[in-house]
Amino acid sequence: MKLTFLGTGTSMGVPVAGGFGPKHAGNDPRNQRYRCSVWIRSQERSLVIDTGPEFRLQTLRAGIRRIDALLMTHEHTDHIAGLDDLRSYNYEQKKAIPVYTSPRTEEAIRHRFSYMFGPDKTPGSVDIDFKPFQQAVQEGDCRIVPLPVMHGGMEVMGFRVNDISYITDVNHIPDDTAKKIRGSKILIMSGLRWSPSHPTHYTIPEAIEVSETLGVGQTYLIHMSPFVDHEEVSRRMPPRVKLAFDQLELSV
Fold first, then answer.
1. Domains of the chain, each with CATH number or no CATH
2. Residues linked to residue 87 through DSSP beta bridges, in sequence order
3. Residue 239: CB atoms within 10 Å
4. How much is the pTM?
5. Which side of the chain, N or C, has fewer Cβ within a 10 Å radius?
6. Integer-rounded Cα radius of gyration of the chain
7. Residue in 157, 205, 207, 202 with CA at minimum distance from that of residue 187
8. Residue 136: exposed, middle, or buried by beta-carbon count in 10 A (0-12, 13-18, 19+)?
9. Using CA atoms, how far apart are residues 75 and 152, in angstroms rounded to an integer?
10. What is the 3 state secondary structure string of the chain?
11. pLDDT of residue 20
């Protein structure tokens, strides 16, 4: 399997609109972060997790020519705003794209993108097919396991796809979910910043501590704020935890 990080930034992206915030990005492309998304490819399937505001640009620079299924973590704007960019895939693939997510996220998408659904569906708009997802499913050679975690008081859906576990927007992992993560070769999870603490996201030290309890091979951190300078923070990381960056490709 192969995985490409399409985006690794926090909800406002990095750098943020207006150029506000820290100025240390310099010429290091690893400090230029689109909103969080990943592309997973197996022998039989091309899967994408989340469609943020830069999704069109992400597909172009990664060269995504097919999407067999979409996995949606939750309904916040930085994870769903690019849904309309799936239209070209519908046109080329000539069928609806299956979407695996929680019932709450499905309801929110149907409300916010109402023109895509129902008797008044706009002709030519995105065609997606929501799939009930409360237990493991098989998509070709990919076994997809739900990994519910907490984002403050909100439940967010993570996913284990074969030996890859993906969790974003998290500050608590329930015991049942931790059991499903254990044994993963790759764990991807959010680490917002080094400090201070945050009410709905793990900090980087907290993410490091949690990853060490989960019995995984290698952890990559995502959903990083403008206050995370890739080179400087990487020097402080333990060997089995690394900062991801946009367009990083892994083989599993």
1. 2-251 (3.60.15.10)
2. none
3. 6
4. 0.96
5. C
6. 17
7. 207
8. exposed
9. 14
10. CEEEEEECECCCCECCHHHCCCCCCCCCHHHCECECEEEEECCCCEEEECCCCCHHHHHHHHCCCCCCEEECCCCCHHHHCCHHHHHHHHHHHCCCEEEECCHHHHHHHHHHCHHHCCCCCCCCCCCEEEECCCCCEEECCEEEEEEEEEECCEEEEEEEECCEEECCCCCECCHHHHHHHCCCCEEEEECCCCCCCCCCCCCHHHHHHHHHCCCCCEEEEECECCCCCHHHHHCCCCCCEEECCCCCEEEC
11. 87
Q: How many residues are recorded in the chain?
A: 252
On whether the CB atoms of residues 44 and 138 are closer than 8 A, the answer is no
pLDDT in tens, 55-103: 999 999 999 999 999 999 999 999 999 999 999 999 999 999 999 999 9
**β-bridge partners, 99:** 70, 130
Model pLDDT for residues 111-143, shown as the tens digit of each residue: 999 999 999 999 999 999 999 898 999 999 999
Nearest to 1 by CA among 39, 50, 49, 55: 39
The sign of the torsion formed by the CA atoms of 101, 104, 105, 106 equals: positive
